[in-house]
């Protein structure tokens, strides 16, 4: 298990988020799980902190809680962006059974 420097982990998280296609989403935990083998870290909370501090220029609205809930405090903007991208929804949550994306997928 490799360990990376904190700055490298921030860059890795943001690189994954940048790859999430329009109309798709990943949970904080899925991002942490995807990066865990290479980074030695697996914390959805850490991914959330990174997104809060550094994710402003990334498609942050495509990162949601495991239950599909959008970013607290930015619900209106996140929902508008997700609906605009035709992301599958269940009410005010992303339908991760249809919208979930993994970096090894082609779309």
From TrEMBL:
Example GO biological process: DNA repair
Q: Which GO terms describe its molecular function?
A: catalytic activity
Residue ranges annotated for the Methylated-DNA-[protein]-cysteine S-methyltransferase DNA binding domain, each copy included: 11-77
Give the domain of life.
Answer: Bacteria
Q: Which UniProt keywords apply?
A: DNA damage
Transmembrane portions of the chain: none
Keyword Zinc-finger: yes or no?
no
Which SUPFAM superfamilies does this entry report, sorted A to Z? Answer: Methylated DNA-protein cysteine methyltransferase, C-terminal domain
Q: InterPro entries from the xrefs?
A: ATL_DNA_repair, MethylDNA_cys_MeTrfase_DNA-bd, MethylDNA_cys_MeTrfase_DNAb, WH-like_DNA-bd_sf
Protein name as catalogued: O(6)-alkylguanine repair protein YbaZ
């Amino acid at each position: 298990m490799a360990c990376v420097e904190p700055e490298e982990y921030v860059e890795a998280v943001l690189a994954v988020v940048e790859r999430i296609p329009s109309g798709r989403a990943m949970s904080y935990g899925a991002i942490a799980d995807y990066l865990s083998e290479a980074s030695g870290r697996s914390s959805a909370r850490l991914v959330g902190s990174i997104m809060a501090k550094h994710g402003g220029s990334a498609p942050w609205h495509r990162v949601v809680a495991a239950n599909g809930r959008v970013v607290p405090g930015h619900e209106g903007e996140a929902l508008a962006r997700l609906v605009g991208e035709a992301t599958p929804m269940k009410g005010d949550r992303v339908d991760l059974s249809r919208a979930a994306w993994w970096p090894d997928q082609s779309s």
